[in-house]
Amino acid sequence: MKRVVFLKIWISSIVYICFTLVLGACSLEENKVTIPEDAPEFVKKSDIESINWENKAVKFNDGMIGNKHKVGIIGANQPNTNEQKWMWHLWGEDIQNATLTVLGYQPESNEIHPILFDHGSEQMIWSQKLGPPHNGADVHMPSMVSVPKAGDWALLLYVDGEYFDTVVHEIN
């Protein structure tokens, strides 16, 4: 009788340990974010980890999508994985004559990608120079955008190497 009780406790313990290890491994894998080697050095893992996925992009100013009075994008109203023209609008102090860096993060795959496309070099790029005021924004930038796969995306924006804002948007 003691042997049966001992065996049950031993088996239960082994099952519990295995279950805990599997769950622990899954959660470690789930949170694994790797920044690509060619990404700008100012991109931090903490920027990715602090994304507020509940703060979805909204429509404003007759066709802009983004975060009102911070980032507005024209052309992102029907986002898809095909190459598209988007015009970025930013509001803020000391951002004139700056460079905008945009990286796309997809949580399902834990992948980070450049989404700006340069027609001249036929390459994906991380950064592009911002232009003058336009459509009420302090600066703007026309660009070609290519997002590699459908799903929820966080578009992290940096101005001259400083984190600026994140636009959370679904790409079809």
From TrEMBL:
Domain of life: Bacteria
Keywords linked to the UniProt accession: Membrane, Transmembrane, Transmembrane helix
Pfam families per record: DUF4871 (PF16167)
Chain ranges passing through the membrane: 7-25
Gene3D superfamilies membership: 2.60.40.3830
Family matches, as PROSITE patterns: PROKAR_LIPOPROTEIN
InterPro entries attached to this UniProt entry: DUF4871
Protein name: DUF4871 domain-containing protein
Source organism per UniProt: Pontibacillus yanchengensis Y32
Species classification: Bacteria, Bacillati, Bacillota, Bacilli, Bacillales
